[in-house]
Design brief:
The protein is an alpha/beta fold. The chain has two domains: 110 residues, Enolase-like, domain 1, CATH 3.30.390; 250 residues, Alpha-Beta Barrel (TIM Barrel). It is built from 14 helices and 16 strands. Helix 1 crosses helix 3 and helix 2 runs antiparallel to helix 3. The protein binds magnesium ion (MG).
């Protein structure tokens, strides 16, 4: 079998995405589906996929590892990460999909077989910055709990920060005392509404300087958080270490780290209690599996990030089914109805979990008419 083409599609449903999908075509009629969505970088990633196409077309799609290494090593001098690792991700997922289809088995069977009946999820309520009131967040949290979910994440931090003229443009922000007080109020209200045993995570989205992140963590410590996610920006392991040494909250990081190599200091320096790589950014099914195995050897739970499109969640699910040190897979459960309009069949989900099927590969296909109907102008193929 030979790869004959690689195509990308950027599509945006109202209020969602935009999502970027990859399809790898073969001369035997099998097609593989992947995703490499990155909202701010979709067109850049699309350019990378186009530029690596000559490396991929003509190859045997069974040689997943060889193709992964070929693209990564060719771009190592410019880091191999970001748009490159995202492009690799989309292609890698599609190649695993082809392999599963060729062998008539779900991808999780190729990864060693299932180690669980289903994959437990965690989901979101509104973030404080989304103009929601605390009462609205509580209402959504209670509805989510009633729907069968047992774990929820929220960003409780308002934009009551000081960061000068680059506010909102990823310059490191400092939380004000008022912002920390509001975060405590936000999380306390959710804790009271959901009860002491419900899992609550918070996400700082890598925004804050070390001192105010530490102050926030200390204020939130009594509220029984499952984790405090990305308390400081991702570039500095030293900053994360300083946060670790001065707080008593569990830390989750990884959505901003790409390839297994970025995770080495996290494990070696004991910088996180959970790791959360994203399948569409860090290097696909192959790399997600490797990072999970690294985490296992340090007794760190694996809890993959997943807040983009339906192909990412379906392929992450395949890895989670076969991964012993899984904690929970992330999802945005209120996007599932939209997923069902552009992929078929929609994966089975209920009771706060995704359930396996016997469908080969990653188990879903794009509904091309819908992808095209919502195509974002400017896409290349
Ligand atoms: Mg996050």
């Amino acid at each position: 079998m030979k790869i004959t083409d690689v195509k990308t599609y950027i599509t945006q449903l109202p209020g969602r995405g935009p999502w970027q999908f990859v399809e790898v075509y073969t001369d035997e009629g099998l097609t593989g589906l992947g995703e490499c969505t990155w909202s701010a970088g979709n067109f850049l990633i699309q350019q990378v996929v186009e530029s690596v196409k000559p490396l991929v077309v003509g190859q045997d799609p069974a040689n997943i590892e060889e193709i992964w290494q070929l693209i990564y090593r060719r771009h190592l001098r410019i880091g191999g990460r970001g748009p490159v690792s995202a492009a690799i991700s989309g292609i890698d997922i599609a190649l695993w999909d082809i392999k599963g289809k060729a062998l008539c088995v779900p991808v999780y069977q190729l990864l060693g077989g299932p180690v669980r009946e289903s994959v437990p999820l965690y989901t979101h309520v509104q973030d404080a910055r989304q103009d929601a009131t605390i009462d609205e967040a509580i209402a959504m949290a209670l509805a989510t709990k009633a729907d069968g979910h047992q774990a929820i994440k929220t960003d409780p931090f308002l934009d009551m920060t000081t960061s000068g003229r680059f506010k909102g443009a990823s310059l490191v922000e400092k939380l004000t005392p008022a912002a920390i007080s509001y975060a405590v109020e936000w999380v306390s209200a959710l804790r009271e509404a959901l009860g002491p045993d419900f899992e609550l995570m918070i996400d700082a989205h890598a925004r804050f300087d070390v001192a105010s992140a530490i102050a926030a963590a200390r204020a939130l410590e009594p509220l029984g958080l499952t984790w405090f996610e990305e308390p400081v920006p991702q570039e500095s392991y030293v900053a994360l270490k300083e946060f670790r040494e001065n707080t008593n909250v569990a830390v989750s990081v990884g959505e901003s780290l790409f390839t297994r190599y970025d995770f080495v200091p996290i494990f070696e320096e004991r910088l996180a209690d959970f790791v959360m790589p994203d399948i569409a950014w860090t290097g696909g099914i192959s790399e997600l599996r490797r990072i999970a195995a690294m985490a296992e050897s340090y007794y760190v739970p694996f809890t993959p990030h997943d807040a983009i499109g339906p192909v990412a969640i379906a392929s992450t699910f395949q890895v989670c089914m076969a991964t012993p040190n899984l904690y929970r897979q992330e999802c945005l459960h209120n996007w599932f109805d939209d997923f069902a309009t552009i992929v078929t069949p929609m994966f089975e989900h209920h009771d706060g979990a995704i359930w396996p099927s016997d469908r080969p590969g990653i188990g879903i296909e794009l509904i091309h008419e819908e992808v095209e109907r919502h195509a974002v102008s400017g896409h290349m193929s």
